Amino acid sequence: MKKQILITGGAGFIGSHTADALTKKGYRIRILDNLLSAVHNNTWPEYVRGRGYELIKGDVRKKKDWVRALRGVSYVYHFAAYQDQRPDFSVFFTTNTVSTALLYEIIVEKKLPIKKVILASSQFVYGDGMYRCAHTGETFFPELRSVHALQKKSWEILCSHKAPAMPIPFREDQRVTPTNSYGLSKHALEEAALRLGKTYGIPTVLMRYSIVQGPRQSPRNLYSGALRIFCVQALTGKPITVYEDGKQKRDFVNIEDVVAANIVVLNNPKADFKVFNVGGGRGILVLDFAKLVKKITDSASPIIVSGFRRTDTRHAISNISKLEKLHWKPRFGPEKSIRDYIDWLRTFKTKKSFHIPKTFF
Ligand SMILES: NC(=O)c1ccc[n+]([C@@H]2O[C@H](COP(=O)([O-])OP(=O)(O)OC[C@H]3O[C@@H](n4cnc5c(N)ncnc54)[C@H](O)[C@@H]3O)[C@@H](O)[C@H]2O)c1
């Protein structure tokens, strides 16, 4: 009998790709998703329909929906989440953190034979992370940059000598300093899952994804980030808008590498009760990424560098050596993510709403 896997948020980007890969490995897939309107417009996306998946429309904030979805399940991927930088702070905690507590509560209460729980956390838990002063070599954890500094276009994190400090790639064992409700709720989720998992003997793995890129990132979803925004801007002939001076570094990871990571930790007991960074392994300037999108789309759009977002971090790069020890490494760069995303956009049903010219499709 094939083992049953529950994927919450499985109608989404990472969950659906993970479902496809697990099916190929012989698992049965059940998806619990509330089809959040910001992502899906309340309908099951075509890429999960007709694939033999059991689809349950339900909410991870509701115990009864979890109970129904957990029946007969061996493994759980908990991916459903509230994302973005929004002011409804409490929704991050109810969706991301309370849902995690509910999951463990039901496993313990009903003595469910769950073999492993794998949860989506985020690079966002690090906030700005740790920096090194170029003068003394000392390390420090900076505060979020002030609005005043950002208005003055003082983008870099400064050390006590008022000189730009050097970012140190995030390591799983460093202190975390989330800068927004999303990061805070993910960190709380990690703590809850690890503590409850250890106490009740439920193998648990936390995945701190960097910025994941590839097809099925909902063009409706503002959280989908630079790939979605730049591609849609480039394809519609609108200016490609880059914040700050474009020299902030980001760590982009391709969805196929993320799926491979999700599978590596499933059957390897060495992953149990551990936290892993899942990133692309190198930092890329956001401006260079915008230029790459422009080149690949052959767009005439100008790149405009201006503006900033209050809670953006300056640089965000994860050290991935811990997961590499489990024989995983990223294989694909942003070029593939951009090309695959554009190919997928061509097939996207509601393309009209993005005013992408007909000639493109
Ligand atoms: N995509 C990234 O770059 C990235 C980076 C770091 C972490 N993550 C995390 O990975 C996970 C998957 O992200 P994604 O990019 O696939 O996002 P996504 O928005 O494509 O998918 C999330 C899914 O969760 C569902 N959902 C939201 N609230 C729900 C609720 N209350 N009950 C049930 N379902 C609900 C949505 O309908 C959606 O299908 C999330 O936990 C996210 O925080 C993603």
TrEMBL record:
Residues 5-160, 168-279 form the NAD-dependent epimerase/dehydratase domain. Pfam families: Epimerase. InterPro entries: Epimerase_deHydtase, NAD(P)-bd_dom_sf. It comes from the Bacteria. PANTHER family: DTDP-D-GLUCOSE 4,6-DEHYDRATASE-RELATED. Belongs to the NAD(P)-dependent epimerase/dehydratase family. This is NAD-dependent epimerase/dehydratase domain-containing protein.
